Structure prediction request, 107 residues.
Amino acid sequence: THFLSSLKLMHQKHDCIAVVLRDLRDRNLPQQGLWEFKDPETGEMGIIDLSQKVHHKLFQHYTTQYETDLTEQLKKLSIDRIYLDTQLSSVVQPLISFFQTRHRRHR
Prediction:
């Protein structure tokens, strides 16, 4: 969310739309094995055992909270947003629907 201050400035002079890509692989961890990760805030490296269910629950909570926070911050900035799933065979229909709804709302 460090980009939001720049987005806020840009939105003052331009019509901005946030396109948020969702990928199931980013939301679901493998069920077993060791996973090495880097903490984006501290830069520290860590390893977790993915066979422990607690790690899956924490990860699910974190990803859900991140998405909720992002949505709320974009709403506060009055920036429209569209969520696109990378598993879709085509993004054309969701984009058409989004812009039709947006057009009706801004009349």
Notes: Strands lie at 17-22, 34-38, 45-49, 80-85.
